[in-house]
Amino acid sequence: MGADQSKGIAQWDVEEVAAAAETLGRHFKPYADTMRGSGIDGIFLASLSTTEVQETLDDLGVESRLHRRVLARKLRVALEGDACTVSCSQSVVSWDSTSPRERRPSARKSMSEKEEDSRKLLELMTAAAQQQMVERCALLQKEAELTKQIERITSPANTAA
């Protein structure tokens, strides 16, 4: 999503969230208007679990599977960007910090065994993705350090000596 890249998504106000949706194209303007009307801000978006993202897209009236994928992916990328620039573990963990079972105990009681297995698999995959993001952030930081070292070594001042 777009908005002010200098601050994390959790700091976006309602207008910045709507503006970010509008940058995706004219077909996304109705969703932006609904986001404005619903008061969706960055704190709300940053607190959503994967399941809640899908439920929120339902509530916003996003019926197109393509539009749902674009919005969900842009949100995930924005949150992952926060994780790399702010703290590799902080924002990634907040993407799904509580399981659906912890949020809705009554829903857990009505789940079939197959749904429970799917939920557990999703939680495992989320944990693995979170770990990969932390590792990716560490690698990006190391790459930046090495690039600086290479630039220092190959600078004209060092090669002339």
UniProtKB/TrEMBL annotation:
SMART domains in the cross-refs: SAM (SM00454)
Which stretches does the entry tag as region Disordered? 94-119
For bias type Basic and acidic residues, the affected ranges are 99-119
Where does the record place the SAM domain? 12-81
State the name under which the record lists this protein: SAM domain-containing protein
What is the organism of origin for this protein?
Seminavis robusta
